[in-house]
Automatic annotation (TrEMBL):
Pfam families assigned: DUF7899 (PF25463)
InterPro entries in the cross-refs: DUF7899, WD40/YVTN_repeat-like_dom_sf
Protein origin, superkingdom: Eukaryota
Name this polypeptide is given: Transducin/WD40 repeat-like superfamily protein
Species name: Populus alba x Populus x berolinensis
């Protein structure tokens, strides 16, 4: 796809899921770990699973009680509508939708559920003003982490290679293990978006580096205006390894396509200042083979950052 963007031809690809009604609150989720695509049509309350290789539909899930679906390697967790004292849960095979386990998790009555997350056989459950519970669904063991040590994050990223998970809260990132222990906090990685926009975060395939759109150093703010920085940090140590900001960055020519009324694409080539390129970034991607970082902003421009 990037070669088409470079040529100014983003429409050179092919359409997908044309038969599906995916408008909000419907969605499409690409799962490269399992090689699957999950879609949800809010119009008819149907989830469908497709093969990521050829986009053929494998099976569908039609259940109006399904509140949310979580995907892990090999399995899916179905979170059903909560009853007064418990939440029904189902674990399905990601390959064919077969139910592997059907059980209920007890809850404190009259307290909202902050989150239910799944990582392989581990289930993380947190209710309002309660301790974090880490369940082993195979052996039914439960470990609790004090609510003062683990506060509800706004987002998670699971690190399957390292058996760890990232939490995002108030622009900060932390790394935890499944014993409920804090593994890493980052020395210089204050995210730009307070609500953790994961479109602006990239984890390398080895899961050793995190690349994020961050707030610039306070010492640089006077010269950068509204520009942020792109920070690269080691996940296991929390050390900041590199940073692209207005004083050291130099993107390649940026390319974008704009549509006329007849949908004819015209290629725009322009140069912009580094500070402008670091403003209003809405998406970030790292090409590990080419060692290039791609950023897109709210104006529809794509910048390429390269050595």
């Amino acid at each position: 796809m990037f070669r088409y963007i470079r040529r100014g031809k983003p429409d050179a690809g092919f359409p997908l899921f044309e038969s599906e009604s995916l408008k909000w609150p419907g969605f499409v989720e690409f799962d490269d770990v399992n090689g699957k695509v999950l879609t949800y049509s809010a119009q008819d309350s149907i989830y469908k699973v497709f093969d990521l290789k050829n986009y053929t539909m494998l099976y569908s899930i039609s259940d109006t009680d399904v509140q949310e679906i979580k995907i892990s390697p090999g399995i899916m967790l179905l979170i059903l509508n909560r009853s007064s004292g418990y939440v029904p849960l189902k674990i399905l095979s990601i390959e064919d939708g077969t139910i592997l386990k059907d059980f209920k998790h007890l809850l404190h009555r009259n307290k909202k559920v902050d989150f239910i997350e799944q990582f392989n056989e581990k289930l993380l459950v947190k209710q309002e003003n309660e301790n974090l519970q880490i369940l082993d669904v195979r052996h039914t063991g439960i470990r609790e982490v004090s609510r003062t040590d683990f506060m509800t994050p706004s987002a998670f990223i699971f690190l399957y290679e390292n058996q760890l998970f990232l939490t995002f809260r108030n622009r900060t990132v932390a790394v935890w293990n499944f014993r409920g222990e804090l593994v890493t906090s980052f020395e210089d990685h204050l995210l730009w978006h307070p609500d953790c926009n994961t479109n602006n975060i990239y984890i390398t395939s080895d899961q050793d580096l995190i690349i994020s759109y961050c707030k610039a150093d306070s010492d640089d703010q006077w010269m950068e205006g509204n520009a942020g920085s792109i920070n690269i940090s080691n996940i296991l140590t929390g050390k900041c390894l590199a940073k692209i900001n207005a004083t050291n960055g130099s993107p390649k020519d940026e390319e974008c396509s704009s549509s006329t009324g007849s949908s004819k694409q015209s290629r725009l080539m322009m140069r912009s200042t580094v500070a402008a390129a670091l403003e209003d970034i809405t998406a970030l991607f790292y090409d590990e083979e080419r060692n290039e970082i791609y950023t897109g902003n709210r104006h529809g421009l794509v910048h390429v950052w390269s050595n």
